[in-house]
Structure formats: structure tokens, C-alpha cells
Amino acid sequence: MFTRKQGLVIAITTYDIDALRISVPPLRRCARDATLVIHNDNPNVELNRQFIRKLGWRGALHIINSKNNLGEFESRIAVLEYIEREKIPCDWVIFVDDDDALIDATVPDVSESTFAIIQNATTISDNITDIFKITPKWTAGSEYGKTGAHFDITGTLIRRDVAIEFANFMREILPEVSKIAHGFKYRVPVGAVMWVGLKTFMRVRHPEMSAIYMNQTNYVSIKLGHDAQKYGLRAVPVTSAKTFNSNVIKKFTEMFERAAAQI
Where are the domains of the chain? Predict the structure, then answer.
């Protein structure tokens, strides 16, 4: 598949800015021509350009220091609204979790009817230093972690206009999204939930468009144990993690389908 020069925004939302020591350094190797937009959701800590430059990023940079703690869902919505408001030139947007890594930012030349490009992610669950051994050319699959298709809003290339339109949809239903999320004892898989929301929205709003899958690895997801916390919540229950995530996705899917039907 051929590639051509296309504008890309890499969007990172963070609460603990020290986590950026994981996500930012790999970008200098794979995304020098992209624009990096970071939303700092911790109002008690100011993120500055010098901190990011020390991590090796030399490209275009936008930092949003939130005055309030918005949470993961609204932070990502806020990033997309910022891209539109500031008229940042780009064709595609890709989200990266602050404690994950994007290792290949190549944008393939695909049909205009493609609204998103799904790729593979390698999940590291034992040793975080393995992230430094993985490169875009590495495709072994099991040497450092499990590799497979990544159905998540992180690591997925999304057309800019589609992402902005989806952000407007999410803004409208945010109260209900927050209500469902707060109803769970553990942190919901925000990236997977937003991917389900995007698919549902596009199926109703733009049935003529579709997502495609490319069998190549562009993302590293780090999951180092059940005790890992984010936004004050443990990621998943010690047991029955799959059941928990399945129940979360089912609950949100039902809500997204109801909301999309009213578009």
C-alpha cells in the first residue's frame, strides 16, 4: 500500500505528567513531521514546553493545561475541540495513552471512504523496559508480549473531520457517558468504549464509510498488573477482568445505539 505526505496530529491526554516519559520519547523516531497536542488534566501541575523538549520532541507542539479535572472522556473531547478551534492543519488524528507508546506513525494512502485505520498493538504485561526493544520493523508477535488487532481509539488513525464530528456527538451525550462510567467501581476502558462509540456513530451518520484493518504493529500497550491505578481507580478487578470489560462495553454500546438513533 502506497503512502503520501499527510498531516497528522498525535493527541495525548494525561493526569500524571511523569507518564509522558514513556509515551513522548518514541515519537521522535517515528513522527517527526507530526503535530503533538498534549492535554494536561491535572490543574495542580503545569506542563511546560521545556519538559516535553527534554523528552526529545522537536516538532510542532501544543500544550493544554486544564483549569479543571475533566476526566479521560472529556479530555479527549477537549483535544479534538482544540484542534478544530485552533485550526491545526491535519488529515488524521491518532490518540496515544500517556503510558503507552506509538512506534509507527506512517499514514497510508487509503480511499476517501475510509474513516479509520485499525492496526496491531503489542501488549506488555511483565517488563516495561521491553518497550525500548520494540521497533516498527518488529513483527514477531510473542517475543516481548502478545500482539493482535487493537480495537481501541488509541493507536487508531481517524480522519480529522470524522474525529471532530464524533467529538460533537460525544459532547452532547457526555452527561450520560459520565453517569455510566461513575457507576462502575473500577476504571472503564475508555479507549475501547470510545471506539465502540465511534463505530456506532459512523454506522448511523456515515454508512457509506468504513474502517479498515492493516496487519502491522504500530502501538505498544502497557498493562503492568491489576493494581495499576489511573485517575484514582484501579484498572480492572483482580479477577474476572474480561467479564468486567465485557459488561462495560455492553452497557455503553446500548447507550451509544440509543443516542445514535436520535441523530
Answer: 8-260
- Give residue-wise pLDDT tens across range 77-113: 999 999 999 999 999 999 999 999 999 999 999 999 9
Would you say domain 8-260 falls under CATH 3.40.50?
A: no
pTM over 0.85: yes
Q: What is the pLDDT of residues 114-164, one digit of tens each?
A: 999 999 999 887 655 555 555 544 444 445 678 899 999 999 999 999 999
Q: How would you write the chain as a 3-class SS string? A: CCECCCCEEEEEEECCHHHHHHHCCCHHHHCCCCEEEEEECCCCCCCCHHHHHHCCCCCEEEEEECCCCCCHHHHHHHHHHHHHHCCCCCCEEEEEECCCEECCCCCECCCCCEEEEEEEEEEECCCHHHHHHCCCCCCCCCCCCEEEECCCCECCEEEHHHHHHHHHHHHHHHHHHHHHHHCCCCCCCHHHHHHHHHHHHHHHHCCCCEEEEEEEEEEEEECCCCCCEECCEECCCCCCHHHHHHHHHHHHHHHHHHHHCCC
